[in-house]
Amino acid sequence: MGTAQILFWSLTALALISAIMVLVSKNPVYSVLWLIVVFFAISGHYILLNAQFLAIVNLIVYAGAIMVLFLFVIMLMNLNTETEPQKSIWMKFFGVVAGGLLLSFFISFVISSADLKGKSAQLKEGEIGLIKTLGKALFNDYVIPFEIASILFLSAMVGAVVIGKKD
Amino acid sequence: MYSLHAITNSVQNWLNARLSSTWVLIIESLIVIVLAIALFAALGLILVWLERKVAAHMQIRLGPNRLGPAGIFQTSADTLKLILKEGLTPDGADKFLFNFAPFVVMIVAMLLLAPIAFANGFQIWNINIGVLYISAISSLSVIGILIAGWASNNKYSLLGAMRSGAQIVSYELSAGLSILTIVVLTGSLQMTDIVQAQQNGWWIFKGHIPVIIAFIIFIIAATAETNRAPFDLAEAESELTAGFHTEYSGMKFALFFLAEYINIFIVCAIGATLFLGGWMPFHMGNWTQFNHVMDFIPSSIWFFGKTFFLIFLIMWFRWTFPRLRVDQLLNLEWKYLLPVSLFNLLLVTLIAIMNWHF
User: Fold this and answer.
1) Which of B140, B129, B193 is closest to A50 using CA atoms?
2) Which of B129, B136, B182, B185 ranks highest by number of CB atoms within 10 Å?
3) Domain range holding B253?
4) Residue B38 within a domain
5) Using an 8 Å Cβ cutoff, are B149 and B244 in contact?
6) Nearest residue of B to residue A75 by CA position?
7) Tell me: the pLDDT tens digits for A7-36?
8) If you measure CA to CA, which chain B residue comes closest to A3?
9) Chain A neighbours among B 313-342 (CB < 8 Å)?
10) Model confidence pTM above 0.90
């Protein structure tokens, strides 16, 4: 087993364990911190696929910005185990069953898809995730969707300012 | 001639001749770890001493002068004292996160060292998105500060952490935009490319007034991001006792203190690399002899000289400007610095496209 495989499996285990910990943790602050660990593990995967730019953007946007805002809000709320509403045991049970069915559906769908059969990811090669390739693809092939997405972001920001303004 | 590049090459060759590639990687990683920790210790000791000396000089005092020549061993003695102190954990605190937070802050500071070019060919990781890597990782130190503030279970700590978070998140924008101006001019995010592009002159001289504006904005944002006066609201003593590290004592406090100074070093190193040419010597047009003399000075001295000049500048700010209020701080960023740097970025793009820079 080469270094890449060892890194892949340890990152995968880290991602899965911390994703489970996000759900299992009683304290919401711990959940957010575990989610940050998940994003780190996924960024590690991107780096293994030679997509450094995607890895770093994933860190900037999710771990750096969104999770910090989550932490802000959650830390300022008064969250205790007493005030948290508890669902009944039957609700939890059916939740687990429904979630498990959805998961098995996704897994079977991915396994049976023809595009993915007998292929493994390219490690340390490929240029899809490098900034040059990505920029060219965005500004040549997908320029209109890209611009529409940026206008959407702008209008969302203006909307946030309007909602947040005192009148 | 001795250079760090030659030393690293000979170490690499020596190891390659004797060991398999996996062991070479492991041993080189160990060497890098030891060097990074040594750099951290040395920087912590020197920067704290320097800050106290600069502060004393600004206030016409002597500063530390008892231990060693000019008090150089004062910080070592202080560190020894902090190691011997008891590390208290408050009763209502979240024990695990409280003890974990100083390490998050330290690890983030250590990760930031990776893409910095300390000298010609002397760099830990020449990643092709070096500048972006730095802005991504430096935004993670907020998480450590927020954890520290929340886990302390103290209202001053929480308020300090919130202020610090708001400040770092907002000033990151203008720091990022001023870094982008240099990226636009160079056309690359890699640290080595940015340094190489400044061979015939540093960007601050080549890039006309827009780059000077970007440099000034970068220095302001860097001061704010490292939570230093005049932007030290996060630990404003008169309002919040000590901000997010109010409850910390002993070595855990020392780690926060050390991380603060390491962060100052790192932002100044980035500033020196982007605007002042990194390890590139100072060259004057066609003065061949002058250029030769400048080339003779080792590249590591150039790099550390520029970095320490910027550190001195930031220390100078601390004793020159009074502390801002929270609303003034956020107004300065969102109403002045951000629009100016956005417009400035457009100007620089125009310069880069029309090739107006030297």
Assistant:
1) B129
2) B182
3) 92-354
4) no
5) yes
6) B150
7) 888 889 999 999 988 888 878 888 888 898
8) B22
9) none
10) no
